Amino acid sequence: MATQATAFGVLTERLKLRQIDYPLLLTTTLLIGAGLAALYSATYPWSPAIFRKQLVWLGLGVVLALVMASIHPSMWARYSKLLYTLNLGMLVGVLLFGAERKGAQRWLELPGGFQLQPSEFAKIFLILTLASWLARQGAAIRTPKGFLLSMVHMAAPALLVFKQPDLGTSIVFGALWFAMVYLAGARTRWLWLTVVAGALGFAGLWHFDILKDYQKARLVSFMNPEADPQQSGYHILQARIAVGSGQLVGKGYLHGTQKNLRYIPEQHTDFIFVVVAEELGFVGAVGLLGLYGAFLYTIWRLMTRTREEYHRLIAGGILALFTFHLLTNVGMTIGLFPVVGIPLPFISYGGTVLWVSLLAVGLLQAISLRESPVRI
Questions:
Q1: Which helix (H) or strand (E) holds 105?
Q2: pTM score, two decimals?
Q3: What is the rounded distance in angstroms from the CA atom of residue 223 to the CA atom of residue 78?
Q4: How far apart are the C-alpha atoms of 88 and 189, rounded to whole Å?
């Protein structure tokens, strides 16, 4: 009997190993490696401590991802109301007790000089709780009441984040909601009406001076950065110079001129893609984008193969999260979008951003372990 039990245990472990999404694991590992290389280049001459901190964040993040992968996703559905309350509580806590930097109150101070940004965790909380709510409602999302209630579910944390102020992250919340209710079967015409209402609402924020002056300046500089080259247009102009100077194959790893002279603002966080483009050129930038494309494809493949609606909505929300971050970050660094402070997952410096990215991958692996068909 003991031998049979041992054999059964070995077989079970082998089946679980076969259900791991290895393409997702591989592309994530390669992105982490690319991120560490880019961050080292962006910081080694002037602040090597940043790279060491990122290694600490990475080690802790891997542990969190493993824990997340070991938990059945259905547990998050059972405690979705508690998660939603916790999410709102964290965001209110930031407004009451958060540390202020550069005119924004977005961080909670931790011992050892570390900081935590709850608005990043709020993205995962929103995906989990909204997926649970949509899965329970079913076809109700096609009714006006269901559609509006789903919007309220997103709007509460989004408004708290907007208050910090953090326009970029609040827009991310809107993008997540849009993608997930579309996957849940919301009527297309209502989604288009929401887009129109959002555009009108943004015009109202501008007209009634609800947007901060620096937020307005970023939007104006996006249209004409040369109008204020030393202030609001500086980010875009320096990024444009650095990307253009990279040409086909770049100036060589660690040899970016604009980077070494620190002409690139926030070159280790929001504008780290500029460092890649300057040092590795068009070839390196396209290579990184191709790696991201492979990563997003593995998520899309998992989403389309899931049997449970709750799992499909989670995977779709995570796919929307990474896609929006990628398009917005790269777009703003090459002048296609306004500067809104959206980091590049796995590449930009930041412990909370890295943790959330790894938690998302761990959650996807948890779905894969419970969903993938096993072939013996």
A1: strand 104-109
A2: 0.91
A3: 47
A4: 30
